[in-house]
Amino acid sequence: MDINRYRPEDRRAVDALYRRVFGHDAADASRLRWDWQYRRNPNNPGGEPEIWIAREGPAIVGQYATMPVRLAVKGREVKGSWGMDVMVAPERQRQGLGELLFRTWDRNVGASLGLGLSDASYRLFQKLRWPDVGPVPCFVKPLTRRAFRRPNWPMGLNRLVSAMMLPIVKIVARTRPLNAEVRLLHRFDDSFTEFWESIAPRFDLSVRRDAAYLNWKFASAPHVRYAIVALVRNGQTAGYAVYRHLTEPRGRLTLLVDLLTEPDDEPGIATLLRWVDREAREADSDKIRAFAMHAAFRRVLRHSGYFQVKSTMEFVVKINDVDLPADFYERTDGWHVTLGDSDQDR
Ligand SMILES: CC(C)(COP(=O)(O)OP(=O)(O)OC[C@H]1O[C@@H](n2cnc3c(N)ncnc32)[C@H](O)[C@@H]1OP(=O)(O)O)[C@@H](O)C(=O)NCCC(=O)NCCS
What we know:
The chain is an alpha+beta fold. 32% of the residues lie in helices and 29% in strands. The chain contains 9 helices and 15 strands. The strands form 2 sheets. Strands 1, 2, 3, 4, 5, 8, 14 and 15 form an 8-stranded mixed beta sheet that branches. The chain has a 7-stranded mixed beta sheet with strand order 7-9-10-11-12-6-13, with helices on both faces. The protein is globular and about 65 Å long. The structure holds coenzyme A. Coenzyme A (COA) binds next to β4, α3 and α4.
């Protein structure tokens, strides 16, 4: 068996394997994103997809498809890589092939990261002793009493809980004034790159959020449409938020997908959150959901009416290219990771 990089002529065999492992719906969704996700990533020089293929003779029996990113780690920049679509042919699983794919990927990147993992891949990361720092905390802000409905509860119980929660909703969901200018955008201009560079050293770990990355990730994604707003202070870019609205089985939801300000810009974070509140109400959402790892963002979320709920977004990361203090993986309060990272919002 050989493991080497993806070639254009592998496409059909990879598609067929994807269909077998993940099913038809996931395969169709992946095809819609594929070109954007793997070829048009600005961190992919030459548009070469960062995908490793496991071959047995002419057959393809596995792949590890990844997303290269530039990772800021304690003031240094590292070539990071989100591991995403990893798969092994069903008849070849549990024979060590996955382990070979994980190790090949890791040997070739400056930092290997995984977010929102399946049970099988999470266990494999654990078996291979990747540092486990997750899950990334999840927050929900209720906007209507329907926010508390659960698809697995009977209707009567849902109604009772909704009625009991109404007074809380009325308090947390009240409208509050904005403290700075918020502007709707279609694309991120160069001021976002300058802004990122000015604040990057403030994060112990974060994907480089420059204009090229942000435009690729949030302005030209083919599978979802995002709303993007800038926080502007004295005419200067001071942050942004990315969000979208959708319908879930028991109600309408606004997802706060990504958010960036200087970490101690509490009024700035609060202003962006208040803007998203208004937009969510306008879209008739019952609640807003956000994921945040950084302590400063978590604190303002809590002060803005968000409750922390159970998160299933597991997070593993292994930095290869920088020497780090022994407690690096235990002190994650300065790490900035959101739902906008990796390919979580898909
Ligand atoms: C995840 C995957 C790529 C692993 O490949 P693999 O070749 O089976 O992995 P290996 O044989 O090298 O390693 C096996 C280890 O992985 C974990 N693992 C693999 N499949 C598992 C499963 N179904 N349930 C629980 N753990 C599993 C275990 O830790 C296992 O160790 P063990 O056999 O000693 O218990 C493969 O299971 C797969 O394609 N799964 C379906 C697709 C998927 O979930 N992809 C991940 C998307 S995030």
